[in-house]
């Protein structure tokens, strides 16, 4: 049964571990140097979002971070990708947090396809990410609102 809870500082090590495994499995376009950069900087944002841990019974499957109505983080442990957990999480966040926007790396084609299936569409594009790195970002809006 899918459930969630707000992450606490004691959970941050597990969050970073999931982030690392997920990025290794899905973000092949990132350089090793940039993976290290993001891994070191991402914890700085945990206090700025509603950071939630997602479980299937006792198994930690991933985490999400919401800022207002924007989903700014969604990472699943690779062993749970493709098993409909992402869809269930997005549905819950739409219903309970009213998320209506998401940014996604343009090179992360599987994530883009996933979000488009969830009712989002491309609203705009930035040539570089928020850290001025050469990873184009697609800004998505929820069209099913």
TrEMBL record:
One Pfam family matching this protein: Acetyltransf_10
InterPro entries from the UniProt entry: Acyl_CoA_acyltransferase, GNAT_dom
Tagged with keyword Acyltransferase: yes
Gene3D superfamilies in the record: 3.40.630.30
Keyword tags: Acyltransferase, Transferase
Domain N-acetyltransferase: start-end pairs: 16-144
PROSITE patterns: GNAT
A molecular function GO annotation: acyltransferase activity, transferring groups other than amino-acyl groups
Protein's name according to its UniProt entry: N-acetyltransferase domain-containing protein
């Amino acid at each position: 049964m899918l459930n969630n809870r707000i992450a606490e500082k004691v959970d941050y090590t597990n969050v970073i571990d999931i982030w690392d495994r997920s990025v290794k499995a899905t973000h092949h376009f990132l350089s090793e140097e940039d993976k290290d950069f993001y891994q070191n900087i991402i914890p700085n944002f945990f206090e700025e979002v509603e950071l939630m841990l997602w479980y299937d019974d006792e198994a930690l499957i991933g985490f999400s971070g919401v800022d207002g109505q924007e989903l700014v983080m969604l990472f699943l442990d690779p062993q749970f990708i493709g098993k409909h957990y992402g869809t269930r999480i997005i549905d819950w966040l739409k219903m309970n947090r009213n998320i209506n926007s998401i940014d996604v790396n343009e090179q992360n084609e599987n994530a883009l396809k996933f979000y488009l299936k969830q009712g989002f569409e491309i609203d705009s594009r930035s040539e570089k990410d928020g850290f001025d790195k050469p990873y184009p970002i697609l800004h998505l809006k929820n069209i099913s609102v």
